[in-house]
Amino acid sequence: MRYYVVSDVHSFYTEMIKALTEKGYFEDKEPHKLIICGDMFDRGSESVEMQKFIMELLEKDEAILIRGNHEELILSLINNAEYNFGYGIEYTHHWSNGTVRTVTDLTGMDVFNDDYKDIINKLCATPYIKDIIPKTINYFETEHYIFVHGWIPCTRLKTWSPYNHKYIPIENWREVGDSQWYEARWINGMLAHSQGVKENGKTIVCGHWHSYWGHINRKEENGEEIGEELNYEPYYDDGIIAIDGCTVSSGIVNCIVIED
Prior knowledge:
This protein is an alpha/beta fold and 260 residues long. The chain is 37% helix and 15% strand. The termini are close together.
């Protein structure tokens, strides 16, 4: 099977379509599927188009959707709606992370003036919440690859900075519960990989953390000058491919093509 893989498209539908077109996705006559490694919505302005496109793929069984931390964010907004709207939605992390933008784009409602219960009811009736999120999975595995959002579950020893967290492998990570998968969606996979959290014989494809982090870290390890220009291309190393191109800053959606 041929897999076209993107991640963290964040409602940048036009940029995603451009990346897929450049890779030959729409001209491909052989069996193929699109894998989205989480964070399908938020930040960008094309949530309606993204929702329609994903629904069309699901109807044809041509999409594999990995749950990301932004899928968790919109569920958190819904489950804690009274607090979020009562507190002042513009002061919450849902505002800064773009979740609220997705809500307004998909419902057409005013988060400041409309009743929050009506907003949530309309949001829950959208294909995004009703059909797409229930189709998301923790990971997808083929013979040689594992596709996740942040990373595979592991034990995280938190420090003062996410750049210094320490990660310890969990042997039976496929069998862990929802809470550990939730934590895994927020992990910098490149950092965890560098600390030995790997899966022997497999390459883990991840998003969530901008790929330029890996390129910068590699330069630092090699004693090279970092420079001012960031490298948003996919980051490759033994056992990892990190593909989040930080679309909101770069205007780029990375797409890789894998046969397995």
